[in-house]
Amino acid sequence: MTVYPAIDLLAGRAVRLQQGDPARQIVVADDPVGLARRWEAEGARWLHLVDLDGAFTGRPCHLDLVGRICGGVGIPVQIGGGLRTMADLDLAFEAGAARAVLGTAALGASDLVAAAPVGGLLAEALARFTDRIVVALDARDGVVVTEGWQHASGASVVETARRLAAAGVSRFVYTDVASDGMLAGPNMSGLSAVMAASRVPVVLSGGISTLDHLRATAAAGAEGAIVGRAFYDGRFTLAEAVVAAVGAG
Question: Fewest 10 Å CB contacts: which of 67, 108, 141, 221?
Answer without folding.
Answer: 141
